[in-house]
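Need the bound structure for flavin mononucleotide, inputs here:
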Amino acid sequence: MPEQFKLILKHVDAPGYTPDIECYMRHGGYEALKLALATAPRDLPDGKKLTPKEVVREDVKASGLRGRGGAGFSAGLKWSFVDRRSGKPIYLICNADESEPGTFKDRQIIHKDPHQLIEGMIISCWANDVKLAYIYIRGEMPRGAKLLEQALAEAREKGFLGKDILGSGNDLEIYVHRGAGAYICGEETGLIESLEGKRAYPRIKPPYFPAVLGLYMCPTIVNNVETLCHVKHIVTMGAANYAKLGTPNNTGTRIVSLSGDVQRPGYYEIEVGKVTIGELINDPDFGGGLRPGRSLKAVIPGGSSSKVLKAGEVFKLNRKGADGQMTKVDVPLLDLPYDFDSLQQAGTMSGSSAIIVLDDSRSMVDTLANLSEFYAHESCGQCTPCREGALWLAKGLHRLSHGEGRKEDAAYLSHIAQNIQGRTICAFGEAASWPVLSFVKKFRDEFEAKGAADEEARAKATGPAHGTRTAASSNQH
Amino acid sequence: MSFAVPAPLEARLDELTTHYPQKRSASLMFLHALQEHFGHISDEAVEWTARKLGLTPINVHELVTFYPMFRQQPLGKTHVKVCRTLSCALAGGAEVRAHFCEKLGLDAHAHAPQTTSDGKFTVEFVECLAACGSAPVVLVNEDLHEKVTAAKADAILRTGK
Ligand SMILES: Cc1cc2nc3c(=O)[nH]c(=O)nc-3n(C[C@H](O)[C@H](O)[C@H](O)COP(=O)(O)O)c2cc1C
Ligand code: SF4
Ligand code: FES
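Answer from helper R.:
Posting the output first, comments after.
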């Protein structure tokens, strides 16, 4: 039986659990911080000695923790890229912009257990010599922003923030910064520009890697809310024990946001890779299956930007056999383990770990039209292919979903999408084109049939004039 | 109408600028606070913010026009933001918005934000509010309403929140 594993969500929704610091500390809160500050230096076999901060950074690397914001990049490796020689201050930013359609996990932490995030941030800041950090929270979470401000004030009062934290000689301030309704602020360099008080225009990489040239052109760490929470648990459990959770290279737990056509939409924390997509959708403890009489049509597996998977698809996955050799095995969609690597091998991504389920009552044309309108609205407008292309896609799909389609629209839409991806400053270009490319490729018949039906309906409506004349002229021969 | 920022608000904003090594960073937080107080961002508010943060008005104006949450016109007292994006659409978000519009005598097909003539309500479509598991959702001023039905929508209209 697949089960939830509640590490991050342990107290969330528990009866009587409140977001204030007293409640948090009654449940063992801020013990991980004390543990981290008391870390002993470590002697390495090669005679080198790690400082306590280096020990925690190494442990985060050894834990295998991968970013929970979208790209799934190793958190420890990201921290190791930070330029520590520049002499400039190092900043840390918590990405609480949560705006990828389908995703609603960070919201739960922010509103129901804000101190868990703050403790994770304090440990991460201490380990990285950060003295000033921000929580960039999306503008549409005003209550969350106030809760976080309240929680930060409480932590300050207890001496977990401010000067000389718990007598450790380390200073740290964390402030809340509110966005104002733009999805692109979730992209880390757009976020940095926004935090600098500018339009959230993403920066081009290279050279503007945040680890080197981030906030105010200083080295900067940007991590997702959930990622930073995990740091606390790595410290408590130890890297080796943490790495036993989940599956190799996909360690720990992860909160999955499940929405769309299931009976029990919601957020479910699982050990990464220990639960399959089918179980998430159908198990009574998870999605509880589709509505009565419905069958599965498609799954958007990792937020709206991920490539869609079609019901009945079978994927070739690498699996280590008993002899240690890698072999390719066939894995049907519903048996795909929900983890970073399996979804990547299936040609898509686990992204923000948001699953949107579509049943057989749904039109793929209308579904894609809805998503494309989102991307057209959210393009920041810096790159021509993205700004224009996202609009064309949305317009084309609007036509197709409103009875004005053409047979060639399927090809037209793919052509536009192909000319966006890879030609833009930031990954939004891919985010806008991948849904289009995958929907049209996997449901091509449906797109072409809709265009053809629209053409036919129009031909009927405008009368037989054109058609008969052609027929008459050919009769003359 | 003359533009005056009350002293307590100005003091709060002055404190905010100390959160950042560079004052310009406080612009979004300034605009949020001014919009909350005045109901929208006027040209005077833009100029005032620019003066306080050592910027030119265009530096601030370009934020107001970029970030969807900022408004250059006053809106209704109760601001109803209905999520338009996929999970909510699958659960009937468009119908919820149409219900609000019909009840308020607004055009259910217009795309932009619309305000009732008595200035009480503004209805608009917004993008995913990060609450897709309890779709369809509506943000009413600062309060999130989940699994919104026609009955819940009517309650929002009755109470204004
Ligand atoms: C268009 C776009 C939107 C993004 N939105 C978010 C977001 O809302 N929240 C988030 O944590 N990361 C988002 N990301 C990913 C961030 O750029 C960044 O990789 C992430 O915050 C890093 O944190 P992590 O390593 O802990 O996952 C987005 C990326 C792109 C390209
Ligand atoms: S890809 Fe799109 S969102 Fe990203 S920088 Fe270019 S225009 Fe802006
Ligand atoms: S789609 Fe409506 S809240 Fe996410």
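Comments: Strands of chain B lie at 78-83, 114-115, 121-126, 138-140, 143-145. Chain B has a mean pLDDT of 96.
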